[in-house]
Amino acid sequence: MTKRYSRIAIIGGGPVGLGVAKALGLEKFPQIDLFEKNSKFGGLWNYEGPTTTRPSIPSVHHSDPEFNNDEKSPMYKYLETNITKEIMQYKDFPFPEECETFPTRQEVLQYIQNYGETLSTDVNVLFNSNVLSVEKIDDVWKVEVTIDGGNIETREYDAVVLANGHYNQPYIPDVEGLKQWNKLEAGSITHAKYFNESLDFKDKTVLVIGNSASGLDIALQLSTVAKKVYNSVRTPSPVADIKIHGVEEIGEIVKYDYLNSKTVVTKDGAHYKDIDAVIFCTGYLYKFPFLKSYLSGDDALLTNGERVRRLYKHLFYIPDPSLVCVGLPKSVIVMPFAECQGAFIARVLSGRLRLPSEKEQREEELKEIEARGEGKEFHNIKPPLDTAYCQELQKIIDDQGLNEGFEADRWGDYRVGLRKESGPAKARRYEQIVEHANSLRENNEPYRLLRG
Question: What stretch or stretches form a coiled coil here (predicted)?
Answer without folding.
Answer: none
